[in-house]
Amino acid sequence: MKKTEIEFTLNGKKKKVEVKPSDLLINLIREELYLTGTKYACGIGECGACTVLLDGEPVLSCLTLAITVAGKEITTIEGLAQDEELHPLQRAFLEQGAVQCGFCTPGMILTATALLKEKPQATEEEIRDYMRGNLCRCTGYVQIIKAIKSCTTGGEN
Amino acid sequence: MSTSRLLTQEFEYFAPHTLKEALDLLYKYKDEEVKILAGGTDLLVKMKTLDMKIDYLINLKEIPELKAVETNNQGLKIGATVPLSQLERREIIKEKYPALYEGIKSMAAIAIRNMATLPGNICNASPAGDTIPPLMVYEAQLRIVSKEGERLVPVEDFLRGVGETIIRKEELVSQVIIPAPPSNSGSAFSKKSRVKADIAKINLAIWLEREGKTCKDARIVLGSVFIKALRAKRAEGLLKGEMVSKELLTQVARQAAEEIKPIDDVRSTAEYRTTLARVMVEDTLKLAWERAGGELEG
Amino acid sequence: MEKQQFDFVGKDFAIKNVGKVTGKEVYSGDVSIPGQLYAVVLRSPYAHAEIKKVDYSEAEKMGAICIGPEDVPDYLYNERIVSIPDKTYRDRTVLPKDKVRHVGEALATCAAETEEEALAALKKIKVEWGRKWKPLVTLEEAMEDEAPPIHDYVYLGEEKVKIKNNIACTRDIEVGDMERGFEEADTVVERTFSTPRIYHLQMETKSAVCVPEADGGITVWVTSQGIHNVRILLGNIFNLPLNKVNVKRVTLGGSFGSSIQMNSITPICVALALKAKRPVKLVSTREDDLYDHAKYPLITKLKVGAKKDGTLTAAHCRVWVEIGGHNIQAYPYLGCVAGWFASLYRWKNLKYEGKAVYTNKVPTCAMQGYGNPQINFAVESLMDILAEELGMDPIELRLKNYVGKGEEFWGQGPTVRSIIRSCGVEEMLVEGAKLAEWEKRTLPLEKEGEIRRGIGVARGFHTSGTGGPNPGETIDYSGATIKINEDGSVDVLTALMDHGGGTWEAAAKIVAEVLKVPYEKVGIYNVDTRTTVFDVNTHATRGVYCGGGAVKYVAEKVKELLLNYAATLFKDLPENLELSCNHELGQAVIYPREIPENYKTLGEIAEYAHITSWGTLAYTATLRQKNCPPCFITHFVEVEVNTRTGEISIPRAVILGDSGTILNPALWEGQIIGAFSRGLGFALLEETKYDLKEGKLECKGMITDYKIPTTLEMPKLDNLLVRSAHTYEPTGPFGAKGIGEAALSSVGSAVANAIYNAIGIRFYELPITPEKVLKAWKEKEREESQERVGDKLNEY
To answer: What is the nearest CA distance from C116 to chain B, expressed in angstroms?
Structure first.
């Protein structure tokens, strides 16, 4: 299959890569660009582990063709922390015990950043609803919800 | 041999910037296996899980005119690649088309709704598609375009069966047109599923038009109970022109449950779907009637 | 109870998890080696079919490296080697030699430069099938006389065993005189219960990377709960000296018991790498993973006798488990089920009969509890039934009969037992009842309306490890090397695995507490089998108690070395020196007792040991715990049952846990809540169903049709109360026991009991879906209306 060169922004940096039309964004990020924080867990859009931000909105990289992100901005979990400073959500996840095995965590945190951008004052109900597509088998979600709540404006803790 | 880890199909990719280019491509390759990419949430899953041949893929997402949402007194015109999440954020949809709003909100989760589109959900033609019953009760039409012209087809006539529609290979759905509902009308959507973010065991939408205490017009559409979304026409008939009472709604609900033809599958049973159809139609009728400004006695 | 002040134990830190929030954590599928090939696996479309020939010549012509049944060693093994060899059944090879025994069983494999190329090659493999049998899907059909044998012979240790009626193994146990016990009873209740096969759905699919080394050895990165067992198995299978197999510990993306055994793809990846003489990476697809492992189901026929006052007199427990196409240690499973059963209540006289049966389905294995949630559902449901028959409060009946302090607990079947020394059962039942407002509970008959609310209680436990005064059938020891670096920082080298539940945090805190070194200066990293001593596995809720216990033992040895050496510097006796943490300096300090101003920091002492060439302050040892203390749990769960739709929601729950001293409070709570969500899945939602004709999974390997709870199925934050009992385990590190598996054991039972309390319908089979609830509710209404008609007629 013919390869096409595409240019896109990954975590704030311009990237030029060659892709086949059938290449998935998840595999480009993980296998070609070695950013393995984006996780494969179901491959069919059911679990949210492969969530990345496309122009700031959470999308599933397992159902996104790499070629379609030409000219767009992609943020992965690796792009969230500014230099050595953790993003407030990353810190909150650690503090609230919201991380166990950690496999769902990148997708959880990225989805949560979009939620907080859209609804800085999100209520518990709104958080639960927004996060419902990110599966976690370890935590039972409660501490994840608490961590996100603590980052809302007016959030406790 | 398929895998959820990658796509094994070899195909040529196009990302046209105008609708005309897209239609030319569709026409050019109408005798080959061409797929249209809008949201990709159904298409890519199918490409991964089924041994599906595909020669050409046309991505519509770079065509500006398909990204527009037009609103006026006549209603709504939604471009083919507008993501569902953009629709759920619009006040007009929440206010005037609550069944559609509720249908969209019930679907999967935010990441999927950031990708998925209305025409995608319709063209996928799943009997359980959550936007289909709402679009049917609002008498939505699809603008179907090809190099040779265009036609308007009601969603109801568009669907034929599981995964089957009347669209021809050189055509695409460019717009979903939803007429403005008259005042004194009300609508609602309801769905049951195993967990909240899930394919429906059963879903339905109801739209009622009220004239005083009488139901002037009614549309009841149920999903996941037949090979395609099913309009409970006899149940609608029981309502039209009648004074609305709790007893009548119970009777209508019972009738609707008799019209469906559900099966046992991995998500639920025919028996459960039949009972739930009655319960859900009854509850949703009440809600739609209230939203139409009606009151219930007795 | 011993009261202790701790510097680090019981505090919340989470610095060991930083990589998990930044995307830097490396799981086995994240490992990439230059020059690696990618592997994919061909799996059987048939449930039970003879393999005549696997021809991969076309695939190899495309440049792929292939392995078929003929290429793998003849060595029969069991992938789970936690039990002693004599009690381990062996029935499998890396790829099946003669026939496939379930749909999805690996059959052949290809490796190529890319995953796409490997898949393209895989499509060229031709399989010639021989005889095909109708799949044996249910327990009953598998045991029929005319049923085709799934295995003819297997090995138990070195002994060849003939398999009859597809019965893989049995286990019968008797204590006391059951017949006499039932004669003494005033009331006898008997019911049959059933729990389904469910899928672990750990987020990470099983993966492996193998590098063939220049000396003929191999280095592998694998998904595993115990790297040393993987090393031993790979050495045995591929006939490699055990020092030439190096298994790297990588972070686990969840496991829940599914990687106690070496995963089936691990030796497949190794076989490919050895043939290709290049590194090979194999990441399972989710579809493959769903066809690879499942939780043991269980059918339990339970009969219990009691006196009028609620004193139990006897129990007869018969269990059947269909295990799928291979026996991943059903024998210890049957033993453990017996143990959980025997240790829940003082039955006095009991008889237990267990049977494990092969079927043509996915092999089953442990999943958080190793039979505990399964048998708990039967016992705790029956305790409620018995309480009702006796007219007793369910809590009172439990308090009267639970096995507690001073009594014997079977921690891993009948051969691993020890005396209970800490027990919070009474506290949890009594305090929990208050928190859950148990006294406001109404009876099913007193409720009305569309939505019925009910409350249920159930209690459970799990062992903390599989140690005991005498070694039983289970291998249990852990170890570590601990060294103080030249700047006073500390490294802990241990093969102890962390599933994410906080085992590492706990181990690091234990070391910090013993050596009084600030927690952040204790390093615990991914190591490998070559640089660590043996650790059996993080299973059986043994991480903190056994792994942490061993780490504590080694840390104390280092402390001894340290004090002895420091004594030479202070020109004093070691016993006159005090070791403590100076939080201001951020260092451990040592000083002569009562003269703290004369301190030397640990960094100074370590550096001095270094520059004077005294050596490294380090120690290596392994330790076997001599007890298996139970960690207890109690669930009070409220449910709302919608009688029009059959839907069940969980508005509120009160959960109490007894783990002795809690090392990681936030993660401890997280373990309990996480188990609660998995328990809700087990109780209400999950089951891997098979079509009876072809033996395929109804969900086709897609999680689209295998649902687990999401954020929206959990109770609201304020309605989920988690409390800890006030206990101290004298044999545990700083008084600690486990929690992991205990936390799940009674969730399903409490939910079922709550549903009964809400609508007066007893469910004997999990999951309790809306479909089942509505059906049962309609039947109940029909019966009641018939009764009413009957009563009416009687009046005339």
So the answer is: 7
pTM of the entire structure?
A: 0.97
Q: What is the 3-state secondary structure (H, E, C) of chain B?
A: CCCCCCCCCCCEEECCCCHHHHHHHHHHCCCCCEEEECCCCCHHHHHHHCCCCCCEEEECCCCHHHHCEEEECCEEEEECCCEHHHHHCCHHHHHHCHHHHHHHHCCCCHHHHHHCEHHHHHHCCCCCCCCHHHHHHCCCEEEEEECCEEEEEEHHHHEEECCEECCCCCCEEEEEEEECCCCCEEEEEEEECCCCCCCCCEEEEEEEEEECCEEEEEEEEEECCCCCCEECHHHHHHHCCEECCHHHHHHHHHHHHHHCCCCCCCCCCHHHHHHHHHHHHHHHHHHHHHHCCCCCCC
Domains in chain C and their CATH numbers? 15-24+477-623 (3.30.365.10), 31-133+224-254+259-277 (3.90.1170.50), 294-469+627-779 (3.30.365.10)
CB contact under 8 A, A37 and C674: no
Q: Do B8 and C115 touch (CB under 8 A)?
A: no
| ipTM of the modeled complex | 0.97
CATH fold for the domain made of B64-179: 3.30.465
CATH of B12-59, one of 1.10.8, 2.160.20, 3.30.43, 3.30.110: 3.30.43
**Shortest Cα distance, chain A CAs vs residue B79, angstroms:** 19
CATH number of B185-291: 3.30.390.50
Partner chains of C (3+ C-beta pairs under 8 Å): A, B
Out of A34, A81, A103, name the one closest to residue C253 (CB): A103
Give yes or no for B107 touching C (CB within 8 A): no
Q: How many residues does chain B have?
A: 298
Chain A partners of B37 at a C-beta cutoff of 8 Å?
65, 68
User: Distance from C647 to chain B by nearest Cα, in Å?
Assistant: 9
Q: How far is C698 from chain B (nearest CA, A)?
A: 7
Q: Does C580 touch chain B (CB under 8 A)?
A: no
Q: Where in chain B is the domain with CATH 3.30.390.50?
A: 185-291
CATH number of A88-150: 1.10.150.120
Query: What is the CATH number assigned to the segment(s) A4-79?
Result: 3.10.20.30
Give start-end residues of each CATH 3.30.43 domain in chain B: 12-59
Contacts of B114 in chain A (CB under 8 A): 54, 57-59
* pLDDT per residue as tens, chain B (298 positions): 789 999 999 999 999 999 999 999 999 999 999 999 999 999 999 999 998 999 999 999 999 999 999 998 899 999 999 999 999 999 999 999 999 999 999 999 999 999 999 999 999 999 999 999 999 999 999 999 999 999 999 999 999 999 999 999 999 999 999 999 999 999 999 999 999 989 999 999 999 999 999 999 999 999 999 999 999 999 999 999 999 999 999 999 999 999 999 999 999 999 999 999 999 999 999 999 999 999 987 5
Note whether C720 contacts A142, CB cutoff 8 Å. Answer: yes
Buried b (16+ CB within 10 A) or exposed e, C483-522: bbbeebbbbbbbbbbbbbbbbbbbbbbbbbbbbbbbbebb
Residues of chain B contacting residue A54, judged by C-beta atoms under 8 Å apart: 114
Task: Give me the amino acid identity at C8.
Answer: F
Contact status of B4 with chain C (Cβ, < 8 Å): yes
Q: Where in chain B is the domain with CATH 3.30.465.10?
A: 64-179
